[in-house]
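[Archive record]
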Amino acid sequence: MKAAFIRETGSPSVIQYGELPTPEPRPTEVLVKVGAVAVNPIDTYIRAGIVSMISQFPYVIGSDLAGTVEKVGSEVKRFKAGDRVWGSNQGLFGRRGSFSEYASVDERWLYPTPAKETDAEAAAGALVGLTAHMGLFQHAELAPGEVVFVNGGSGGVGSSVVQLAKAAGAFVITTGGSEPSLEICRKLGADLVLNYNSHNLDDQIRAFSLPHGGVHLWFETQRDPTLDRTVSLMAPRGRIVLMAGRSARPEFPVGPFYVKDLRMIGFAMFNGAPEEQRAAADKLNTLYDFNRWKPSVGKTLPLSEAATAHQLQEDNTLQKQGTVHGKIVLTP
């Protein structure tokens, strides 16, 4: 089979595209004929060696996938040949990566694809959808009528947070840096869409949120959080979710934080138990069927251009070039 893989960590140029043996599913695994995969920042960190997850080389890159079941292992109970499935969490903790024509995946990490959802959409929404849902509901316990703020509402996680929070009855504030990204946020249903370059950004957030008591849930997607300003905008007993910024060491306003009875929640989606992730996936599937959740596909490339896709992801994650809105998807 064709696959995108590396034999050493480094820049996107270390990614090779070529032949590897087609995997044979173990008893609890499903062999998936891959229809689409998506790129995430964590994929680039693993490839670069910033995050140590690689157990052996050659290492097939990628964590998200969607496709059709080719065959199943002897102990698989939830799927059969011909079923359409999607999933995430591949390439982590010794699991095989997803950027290949075929991927063998333990059935615990796979979910049925809604009939009307394309493989490209399913792959695009995998990691970011699970992250947003688990962060909002499992960890931060979002309630209807609360005010949610999320940076970058046209990005992968940001656009997911906007949609899922709105579907739950929250008021959503989000930001963008260009007119195209602001328009995407409006179409997603955000109640207040602001340019993050605005000189009075915080005043605008405060004017909208104060009648509701302030921001109840701040979903931080940026690598360098500014906690002084965040805490100042929070409602009493509000929650701050941190899920980015591995090397960040921000100033922390201890006094203003504790006198508001605030909570700070750190989480990484891939630490979630299979049962927790499956519960989130089931909710995402239902929301898709009711037109309340639609993953955002930003750019589609062939799998042979995996190195280009990784460079594009880094340009937008690390360099903040803003050249892609939505997920980068690749097809074998």
The first strand starts at residue 2 and ends at 6.
